[in-house]
Amino acid sequence: MARIDALLRDAADRIGGDSPRLDAEILLAHVLGKPRSHLYAWPERKLDANQCDAFTRLVEQRIVGEPVAYLVGEQEFWSLPLTVTPAVLIPRPETERLVELALTLHPEPVADVLDLGTGSGAIAIALATERPGWRLLATDISEAALDVARINAERHRCRNLDFAQGNWYDAAPATRRFDLIVSNPPYVRNDDPHLQQGDVRFEPEGALTSGHGGLDDIRRIAAGAREHLRPGGWLLVEHGYDQAVEAGEIFREAGLSEVRCEPDLGGRDRVTLGRYRPDDL
Ligand code: GLN
User: Fold this and answer.
1) How many C-beta neighbours within 10 Å does residue 170 have?
2) Are residues 34 and 97 both part of a single domain?
3) Same domain, 58 and 190
4) Is residue 81 in a domain?
5) Ligand 1: which of 75, 77, 89 to mutate, judged by most atoms within 8 Å of the beta carbon?
6) pLDDT tens column, 235-265
7) Ligand 1: centre distance to CA 90 (Å)
8) What is the pLDDT of residues 141-182, one digit of tens each?
9) Burial, 59: exposed, middle or buried (Cβ in 10 Å; 0-12, 13-18, 19+)?
10) Are residues 114 and 203 in the same domain?
11) Can you give the CATH number for the domain in which 59 is found?
12) Domain residues for 15?
């Protein structure tokens, strides 16, 4: 029977990629049902045969590229553990910037908020837990994604968050107006070579790609914003680091004001925002 430290060394050598040691630790901690610190506290402890088999299977799946988040069924976002399955995009730290901006732009304790294309529910759940007085509607075209989002809302006891299925604004009631509309839509060009690398190979294509320029969905979201925002309300959309100029033009063409782009924590252009100001027109 192998010891924890030896198993980790061996797995890290086989996994490769950017973070083989961390990946191995997360997978082994998952098999043992313990936090990663356990692996450092008990390096000499031995696994039983079932645990060894389970770990070996996960390492083999990781070697062929399966994302760690799908293998353990979980990913942290905004310090909230979220359930993830291959039906949803794996929440990424860049998207926490969008949450931060939404909280700053609208400091009021009461708000109506729409999250378009919620996936795992990451953005909506982060906002719902930060602002219990906000009322949120989170949509997705995928029922399978909404099932995951509902599990997460339940896990974090969000009572101020509802879900609706449909294509972008089709899922929202025609008469309801929002103070904030937020979205991390698909924005990758459909021929982007990155789609053949790393985790994205295993993620739902519908959550990643958006036409030739990657901007088709951002265009749809911006075009409908005025009709669904309250006067003074903001639209915030995540996009690729090289899409800020085009996203800004799309927002202005859609009649939004005070349009600007904010960088993520890595200093890369990430979120474009704009406001519905009927008086400006
Ligand atoms: N940021 C993701 C990536 O790196 C794309 C997410 C999206 O399309 N919304 O591929």
Assistant:
1) 12
2) no
3) no
4) no
5) 89
6) 999 999 999 999 999 999 999 999 999 999 8
7) 9
8) 999 999 999 999 999 999 999 999 999 999 999 999 999 999
9) buried
10) yes
11) 1.10.8.10
12) 2-64
Q: Which amino acid is at 132?
A: P
Contact of 163 with 138, CB cutoff 8 Å? yes
State the DSSP H helix or E strand holding residue 203, giving kind and residue range, or none if neither.
none
Give the mutation target among 123, 168, 184, 218 for probing the ligand 1 site: most ligand atoms within 8 A of CB: 184
Are 16 and 154 in the same domain?
no
Give residue for tokens 């998952």. Answer: 30
Residue 207: give its domain's CATH number. 3.40.50.150
Residue 77 domain-assigned (yes or no): no
- Determine the atom of ligand 1 nearest the C-alpha atom of 185: 9
Domain count, the chain: 2
> At residue 128, what is the residue type?
A
Residue at token pair 């474009």: 272
Write down the pTM of the prediction.
0.95
